[in-house]
Amino acid sequence: MALVRACLCLFAVLVFVDGSAVRVVVQEGSDAILPCSPSTKEDLTYKLFEWKKDGQKEVFFYDAGIHYNNGRSGQDEQFRGRVSFFPDQLTSGNASITITNTKTVDSGEYSCVFPRLHPGQRYTVQLVVNQVLKDRSEENIPGVTPRPVIVTLNQTKDWALLQCEVNGASPQPDVEWQDSSGNRVGSEQPQVSEREGRFYISLQTTVTKTDHYSCVSTQNISHQIRAETYVFLSDKVFESGSGVSISGIIVGLLLVAVLVALLVATKFGSIKLCWNRELEMEQELQRERELEMEQKLLRERELEEMKQELLRECELEMEQKLLRERKLEDRQEPRKECELEEMKQKIWREGKMKTMNLDPWRERKLEEKRREIRKECKEEEMKQKIWREDGLLQLLDSPETPAEKQNGYSTGNSKEAV
Ligand SMILES: *[C@@H]1O[C@H](CO)[C@@H](O)[C@H](O)[C@H]1NC(C)=O
Ligand SMILES: *[C@@H]1O[C@H](CO)[C@@H](O)[C@H](O)[C@H]1NC(C)=O
Ligand SMILES: *[C@@H]1O[C@H](CO)[C@@H](O)[C@H](O)[C@H]1NC(C)=O
């Protein structure tokens, strides 16, 4: 059993070290995380590790907190500003890095090395960056889909000879000329040549109208890239006629201009009238809205006042109720006094007993006295109870205060009863 486990373990390490198991595939332009965690799983904060591409290019270097992103020099230009590590993961022995905005040239074999660990460790990650169809004219790699280049070969008053060149595209694009409304413009047969799987296309056209012209290069229908030029050709009307006809045309144009001016003026007049009417209507509407607003405010104020009044009434009622309750409580006061008296007696008794060393006769006397007081208290309590209930009943019958005063309430004072 142990042997099998050992074998399995060895196999897993081999697969990892072999590198074929760690393969990272990303789309061009996205970020790639290259994993690396040495088997010792020790805290790497004060250790050294190094990432290289294809065994030579310096990708990332970390030495006890010093690295390429905080001052250390030596990083390969290709990776400058694009590689980061995970500082909070170092303690758990994670030396993975992220390469942002990957390019196809980033594809290759990356090694993560710990030269100072014992035993020294080395891991390999295969990065594959898949190419995405897009405009690569800004990139310096020989064009996959380069932007077309437009050249005006010859131009007279009546026409212009334009040439479009697409150099080194792959796969072969469809190249055509379009005018500003996107219509195809007739052209010569394209000149196509191919070198090392890349296509070089040249397409000429002769245009006779002033317009913006585009050369559009299309790959797989959906992927298009275009270049635009503006061609200005002078108006033929002025060249073809004699001097007399030109002056005639000028007079005609002037007449037209005057007519147009008149038309515009009257139109503006009516527009202005229209505007005035609209303005008046708008103002009227505004006035109405304001009136409505005022009425609404008034109603709200009335409502508020009503609410306040109701509240005041409610408060008054509450106060009266409280007053009634207070009176009921007042009747309980004798009982409290009685209890207080008993308490005093007790304290006095205990004090006396302490000083007099418990004289039995005195003790008996005191006990008698106590019983008496207690009896009185009991009686008082009984009376209180009856009064309280009486009072409640009367309160319920007639909540007026004067009537309450007359029903013998004042006799409920304890001093009178005792
Ligand atoms: C290392 O950290 C990265 C980033 O948080 C994470 O994606 C990766 O899974 C970690 N590796 C291990 C072995 O924990
Ligand atoms: C431009 O076209 C005119 C008329 O066809 C021709 O005479 C002239 O040589 C051309 N110029 C160039 C540079 O090709
Ligand atoms: C684009 O064109 C190439 C070459 O003609 C072809 O191999 C590829 O399958 C096409 N791709 C799509 C998405 O049409």
Automatic annotation (TrEMBL):
Signal sequence interval, chain numbering: 1-19
Coiled coil: 276-331
SMART domains for this protein: IG
Domain of life: Eukaryota
KW Transmembrane helix (keyword) present: yes
Domain Ig-like: 26-112, 142-226
Record flagged with keyword Lyase: no
Stored SUPFAM superfamilies: Immunoglobulin
Keywords associated with the record: Coiled coil, Immunoglobulin domain, Membrane, Signal, Transmembrane, Transmembrane helix
Broad class of the protein's primary localization: membrane
Region described as Disordered: spans on this chain: 393-418
Pfam family, one: V-set
GO biological process, alphabetically ordered: regulation of cytokine production; T cell receptor signaling pathway
Protein name per the record: Butyrophilin subfamily 3 member A2-like isoform X9
Taxonomy of the source species: Eukaryota, Metazoa, Chordata, Craniata, Vertebrata
Gene (UniProt): LOC114450613
